[in-house]
Design goal:
Distance between the termini: 16 Å
Order of helices and strands: HHHHHHHHHHHHHHHHH
Radius of gyration: 23 Å
Structural class: mainly alpha
Shape: globular
Length: about 475
């Protein structure tokens, strides 16, 4: 069920009304969340429910076993490891089995040996990487005594399957989300209104910016060998905003929807295209995944509190794993390596945490230096997105070469409208860069008048549905 579909338009208000006015006791509310979430997830394919149920139950049981064996640390270690391996095994079979098989066959053929390998014709479950990582974090946090295991199986099922963030995040931690399902919740009008604003802004980014860019991107990437450099640059530019509008738009809708139910999800994007270097970009992009890798892989490996060479190894591992997490293709691994190579010079120079403040704070416009920093960072990110979008490394390399060597100043015939939508997005988010999202309004100045605020809401709502592009799945569903 897509957030930008008619089915969800019907689903959400029904679930909202039943949640607050029928299923008032906490246990019943949580049970209803589980039922609604499984209906939402099973809308794609009911077989997906089997996998998420297995992951959820095994993670819940592992928490209870870890508590029971508190006096036996060695046994706890085995229980934790067993659950982690089981969840990763499920993920690897459905997401990476064919990738490993095909590359193994190719490797043997390189040495003149023929290897028979059976590929599996299996459907990748939507969002399996997201809920798997969420379940893993619970087991690890319980093992490390960061959270006590819960005995409430219904609340735990709600924690793993909560439908707003189930299929594309944010990847929540048990320390933040699980306690919210264990405590009574009350309706907040202010929180609900703020949630609706964020949903509306997310729909604009997805339906107007991302979907309109997608049409031009698909055309340009399919015909890239016959097009000039200007077309190719615009194709890369459009994909840069397509993936941002698509993914951050989903996150906005998810966070806003959760607020309707009295649940606070973590922020997932912080205006990443205003970053002044690659390190800042990664603090602002897909924050829930970046911090997950930091806490559960980077720091356990030693983080930066070790020799420079080991810290470099840890950094490379994080970026390569991040790339591989995105999909079973060498282009994603290459994309991760590309960003690692951009990050490492900052790390060795001790400048990877230089830009942690708000850019152009207290000023309308950035300085020339800040503008140049943002532009350079943006162009590097854009090149990375070409690698990410390409089907093969050869196509990515060829696309970049053609874009540079065949550059011309011929006005493109593809996608003039997306440039306007991108410009609107940039202006609004720049003006709102000290807020949580683009439509977070304060009742100050002219906005203190309700008529003005509602006029803006209706204008954005009408604009979104009049200018919406062809409906497309959210890009990160495949991850």
């Amino acid at each position: 069920m897509l957030f930008n579909s008619f089915e969800f338009l019907v689903f959400l208000p029904i679930v909202f009304l039943l949640y607050w006015f029928v299923f008032k006791p906490l246990k019943w509310q949580n049970l209803f969340v589980v039922v609604a979430s499984y209906l939402f997830y099973g809308w794609w394919d009911w077989r997906f429910l089997i996998l998420i149920a297995i992951t959820t139950f095994c993670s819940f049981a592992s928490g209870l076993l870890l508590e029971k064996l508190e006096a036996y640390r060695a046994r706890q270690k085995w229980i934790s490891a067993a659950n982690i391996v089981l969840n990763l095994l499920i993920l690897c079979v459905f997401k990476y089995y064919n990738f490993f098989g095909e590359n193994l066959v190719f490797l043997f053929q390189t040495f003149g040996m023929q290897l028979d390998w059976v590929t599996l014709d299996i459907l990748l479950p939507v969002g399996i990487s997201f809920y798997t990582f969420q379940a893993l974090s619970y087991t690890i946090d319980v093992y490390q005594h960061k959270i006590k295991p819960t005995h409430d199986i219904i609340a735990f099922f709600a924690f793993i399957s909560f439908f707003p963030q189930l299929v594309a995040g944010p990847i929540e931690r048990a320390t933040n989300l699980l306690p919210q399902f264990l405590a009574a919740r009350s309706f907040s009008y202010e929180k609900a209104v703020d949630g609706m604003r964020q949903i509306l802004w997310g729909l604009f980014k997805k339906m107007v910016v991302a979907d309109n860019c997608a049409t031009a991107v698909n055309t340009i990437f399919d015909e890239y060998q016959t097009l000039g450099g200007t077309h190719l640059f615009l194709g890369a530019l459009f994909f840069t905003f397509q993936i941002y509008g698509d993914f951050s738009g989903y996150s906005d809708i998810a966070i806003g929807t959760a607020r309707l139910f009295g649940i606070n999800l973590m922020r997932n994007f912080n205006f990443p295209y205003f970053s002044r270097d690659i390190a800042e970009f990664w603090r602002r992009w897909h924050i829930s995944l970046t911090t997950w890798f930091r806490d559960y892989i980077y720091i356990p490996l030693g983080g930066s509190r070790c020799s420079k060479w080991k810290a470099m190894r840890n950094t490379m591992v994080i970026f390569l794993v991040s790339g591989f997490w995105h999909g079973a293709n060498w282009t994603f691994i290459c994309w991760g390596a590309f960003h690692a190579l951009l990050f490492l010079p900052l790390f060795f120079a001790g400048k990877n945490r230089k830009h942690k403040d708000e850019i152009a704070k207290g000023r309308i416009l950035p300085t020339i230096k800040e503008m140049c920093q943002m532009l350079c960072t943006f162009l590097l990110v854009l090149i990375g997105w070409i690698i990410f979008r390409a089907e093969t490394i050869y196509q990515a390399w060829n696309y970049i070469v053609c874009m540079v060597t065949k550059f011309d100043f011929i006005l493109p015939r593809h996608g003039k409208d997306p440039l306007i939508y991108i410009a609107i997005l940039i202006v609004i988010e720049w003006l709102q860069r000290n807020k949580q999202f683009g439509m977070q309004l304060e009742n100050k100045g002219i906005l203190r008048y309700r008529a003005v605020r509602w006029g803006l809401y209706y204008a954005l709502f009408i604009t979104t549905f009049l200018l919406a592009g062809n409906q497309a799945n959210f890009i990160y569903f495949q991850f």
